[in-house]
Every structure is written in C-alpha cells, then in structure tokens.
Amino acid sequence: MARKGLTAKAAVPTAAPFVPPSRNLRVLAKAAQDCKGCDLWKGATQAVFGEGRPHAKVMFVGEQPGDKEDLAGRPFVGPAGKLLDRALQEAGIYRGEVYVTNAVKHFKWEPRGKRRIHKKPNAIEIHACRPWLDVELEAVKPEAIVCLGATAAQAVLGRQFRLTQHRGQPVPSPLAPMVTATVHPSAPLRAPDDESRRRVIAAFLADSRRIARMLRRYERKAA
What we know:
The protein is built from 7 helices and 7 strands, in the order H-E-E-H-H-E-E-E-H-E-H-H-E-H. By secondary structure, the protein is of the alpha/beta class. Strand 4 and strand 5 form a beta hairpin.
C-alpha cells in the first residue's frame, strides 16, 4: 500500500491525495494549505494558490511563488507581479478579469545571507503539484492559457516544448482553445545591466500586446 502523497505505481510524490472533490476555488485554495505532496511545504510559509475571476476567459500560469508571494499568500504581488500588471494594462487586459496561478504552489528557495533566493523547482516537484493545476483548469475552464516562462510552459505543454522556438505563438492543446507562452515577468530582474533589462522588458510588453491581439482575434472568431 502506497504511503499518503505517493502513487502506488512508482512512489513518485503527488498532491493528488490532498485534492478534494470540490471544484470550488475557495475550497481548493483552503485545501492546498494542507498539501504535503512533496517536500516544498517544509520550507514555505504557506501554499500560494491561484486567484482571480472564477470563470475567467484567460488563465496565466507562472512557475512558482516568490518571496513576496510566499509571505503574502497571493500570486504575482512582488516585482514580477508589478511588471505583469503593467503588461496587462498596456495590452488592455484588466487583471481582475483573468485568473493567475503557478505550476508549483510552494516557494522553493535557498538562503543567501539574510535573503531567500528563488530556486527552480525540479521535474518531480512540478509533477507532484500538477493535480492542483489540473483542478484549477477544471474549475476555471479558461478559453486561453498564457504560460509565463519555460518551466510553466513545459509543465502545461510537456517537456518537449521549447520557449525559444515557440514564444508568443499559438500552440495546439486539449487544455484550452488557445494556448501560448512568453517569458516570465521576473526575467528582467535577472538581466545583467540596465540596457539588457530595458530590452527584456520591451520584449515582454510586446509579447503581451501580441497575445492580447491573438485573444481578440480568437474572441471575434468564436462569436
């Protein structure tokens, strides 16, 4: 008999035993706080579930919560979230009308002095958290999914997906009528200098406007 939080087949950690049958987002968000499907909960303040309009047409999926999100318990409220808000505003998309979440619900970090520095989740941790993303997709039923960053894109579309090749392009997927991917809004924070940072921000904003145009074309076609 498999231990709680592990699949019987291969003893791979998974959140599935912690996911309730409800598809009410408030119920799911509360249940996520008790998730021990992998070890990331041990170093996190809390699980950071998605938030936004319950039946939003557009769902944005990032990698994982950061330091600010871990403390606040809300997705995309730190520096990357501010850039995402700016991109949405410039693209004519109101954040209150979309749903934002992450592929991994607990903050993975490593200490650097007194700071907690983001550490990329591995394939096992992404797999473990996938049941939470699946139920969010079932609950929201978005018409469009925008993956933010390579980790989120591969979590949603499979490990064969390459952001460098398909960035900003529509990708066929059974998850939603329209799925696409761009860089994560934290990318400018990792730029080596101000000029590089400006270029990365400009490219991200351009992607956001292009994705917004794609969404509008899809809505006209579907009408």
